[in-house]
Amino acid sequence: MAGFAGFDAADYPGDGVMAWLKAHTNLVWCGYYLGPAPSHGDTSWMGTRAAITALGMGIAPIYVGQQVTGPGSKSPSLAQGTTDGGEAADLMTSEAFTPGSCVYLDLENGPPLTQPLRDYVAGWYDAVSARGFQPGVYCSHAFADQIHQLRSGARIWAFKVSTVTPHPVPGTNFPTSDPAGCGYTGAFAWQLGQNCQLTVPGAPQGTLLADLDVAVTSDPGAPNPQLPIVGA
Description:
Elements: E1 4-8, H1 15-24, E2 29-33, H2 49-55, E3 58-64, H3 78-94, E4 102-106, H4 115-130, E5 134-140, H5 144-150, E6 155-159, E7 167-169, E8 189-199, E9 207-215
Parallel strand pairs: 1-2, 2-3, 3-4, 4-5, 5-6, 6-8, 7-8
Antiparallel strand pairs: 1-9, 8-9
Helix pairs in contact: 3-4
């Protein structure tokens, strides 16, 4: 099954860049960083939902929560998951996302999925679900199946990339691979390119630094009961 091309960038690229991408590339959805979040203080995406939707682009809201490696806040626990899940739901509400929309908890680490992180994910999932939103998890393909076993209703956005260093990606026609190609067959989305330098008129130095993704729908954050998640 072919996927739908999307991208995510830490900072909002600007209205002009977004309009150019929609008009001149096959990118049909974007990540949308909610903030401030525990491990993502930038708030540049906030308030842009209506403009992005008006372009006809889909949106995948992202909440960068507690981490166990790298930069960011590192206090994963069941109680903290409950607190952060409530905050993610508050941010979704403040941005006027439709009830039932999916928000993805961003976990940046590779394996193992430690017990404190398992507890954190469970608390976060339950708190988001209780507020009427669909929980999703962005995580390594290497433990995506463990996330599914922990909370089978989570939409999985798995990452599996070949390089992490900035590198040029030419053209305007980006991958539309089946998300199952990440190695987890139940993936709703797959991040398959990291730190890609896209040539975009109007971007600083003419280049947008972004990650490339594919999803099973053109709007990975939308309520979509017709596409249940099944395990690997």
